[in-house]
Amino acid sequence: MMRWFAPLASLALLAACTQLSPRDIVFEDAARQQQLRNLQTHSFAVTDRIKTMRAVIVTLQDLDFVIDQADSRLGFISATKLNGYRLNISVLVDDASPGQMLVRASFSAVLQNVQDASYQEFFASLQKNIVQ
Amino acid sequence: MERRVAIIACMMGLIAQAACVPKPTPEDLRLTPETQVNRQLQTRVFETSDEAKVLAASSAVLQDLGFLIDESEQQLGLLVGSKMRSAINPAEVTVMYILAIMARSDPVYSERQLMRICLVTTPSMGEPPSTSVRVTFQRIVYSNQGLGIKFETLGTPEIYEEFFARLSKSLFLEGKEL
Amino acid sequence: MKKHLKRISCLFFLGTALLSSGGCATTQERLLDSETNQLQLRSIQSRAFETTDQVKTLRTVMLTLQDLGFIVTSGEAGLGSVTGSKWNRGLMIITVSVRPRGESQMLVRANCQLDKQLVNDPVPYQMFFSALSKAMFLEAHEVE
After folding, report:
1. Which residues contact A106 (CB under 8 A, 6 or more apart)?
2. Per-residue pLDDT tens for C102-129?
3. Quick check: ipTM above 0.85?
């Protein structure tokens, strides 16, 4: 009887110990974060933020996304594509750097991995729709 | 014995279909020639430079069609709406119930669907000044157990035609194709 | 055979009890859990910045959240509020509100929850405000 107690109890404790820590979640894997940041950000030589946001919306509609939310003052757009899967995109358009429009996109899909190449494809599509 | 095998094979076939969940690929973010075709189907151009008026009329049409307005952003020419409707298909329910009884389990069938519409206005640069309107549709179908079972983009030439017919009426303007 | 089953189920319940008791919470976490009052929580979650530009602050918050690997799921300038989420073996949702404070400051308050439970550990908030402060080029002042 006691034979089973120790391993089971330690398993239970171990399971309890590997509970997620908020600290780990906020700051994890800095190298991967930097890599992602580079993938997710693209700058365009344009100056009109609203025009750029509209170009993002046109591109998203081209790619069969439906916009969920957009705020022109914040430069924020979120959208969803339904094609058997549910793919979300969150876009920030930032004009803080003079002469440069920074567009930052992040994809998410429930229980699915979004491949890195998706970002390149998205920005290539967006480039086609951006006019100065 | 044979009947049981047949039923199990049937259910496994249905499960396999559900299990083959499509995954998003980088190609899904690429513009294709088909994109241009879709854009033309989804867009009509109205001879007015009053974007606000077009948005207001669009909002009215959306509400006429039973959509609740979820998002509206004047600066971006954006309107988003949604509505929840029944997705019950009597034939599907019947089949699922029969299968469920034979396998002694609970039936799963389409129950509700959330339909979403995204409408975007764009002022046009040319002469005469005009505003283009583009609509896209999508839906999520939920099962009687509350799970999302179908995620798809909607849109046939007929749907767009009917939508723009209503918008034209609301605007007292004719919507021309791109 | 029955006796054997009884022992195994006993052990099973014991294991489950240990799991659900959150056996690894530190003393500090337990302390804050039971004694966190509203004022303490507010001071953990809030910082003031010397700026009157609410929209710029909100935008910097959004960029900072993305830097930290969150996906911004909603942002409303009118409400002065931004929400982000992050999945890593648990769903973490953070809501940040930006409101004017007095004549010359903006009050930034972050509310974080992990798997639907409020995070009242001050450290993740410190880390967030440290990143935000750097991005804003402004000092984050603690609020009483």
Report:
1. A40, A89, A90, C66, C71, C72
2. 999 999 999 999 887 888 889 889 999 9
3. no
Which domain covers residue C19, as residue numbers? 1-35
Which chain B residues are closer than 8 Å to A108 by Cβ?
A: none
Closest chain A residue to the Cα of B36, Cα to Cα: A62
CA of A69: how far to CAs of A110, B69, B155, C34, C117, in Å?
Answer: 19, 11, 21, 38, 26
pLDDT digits (tens, 9 = 90+) for A81-114: 999 999 999 999 999 888 899 999 999 987 778 8
CATH number, residue C87:
3.30.310.80
Q: Which two tokens stand for residue C126?
A: 């410190």
User: Do residues C6 and C53 both lie within one domain?
Assistant: no
List % helix, strand, coil for chain B (3-state, nearest 5): 45, 30, 25
Q: How many domains does chain C have?
A: 2
Domain B43-173: CATH superfamily is: Kinase associated domain 1, KA1 (3.30.310.80)
Parallel/antiparallel/unpaired status of strands B131-143 and C91-101: unpaired
Tokens at residue C51, please? 């700026």
Please give the interface size between A and C, counted as residue pairs whose CB atoms are below 8 Å apart.
113
Residue ranges of chain A whose CB lies within 8 Å of a chain B CB: 50, 53-54, 57-59, 61-73, 80-87, 107, 109, 112, 114-115, 117-118, 120-122, 124-125, 128
Q: Is the CATH code 3.30.2020.30 the one for domain A39-132?
A: no
Inform me whether the pLDDT recorded for A68 exceeds 80.
yes
Cα–Cα distances in Å, from A131 out to A70, A72, A96, C135? 20, 18, 19, 29
The set of residues, in sequence order, having a beta carbon less than 8 Å from that of B64 and lying 6+ positions away, is B166
Domain ranges across chain B:
43-173
A72-101 as b/e, with b when 16 or more CB fall inside 10 Å?
bbbbbbbbbbbbebbbbbbbbbbbeeeeeb
| Domain range annotation of chain A | 39-132
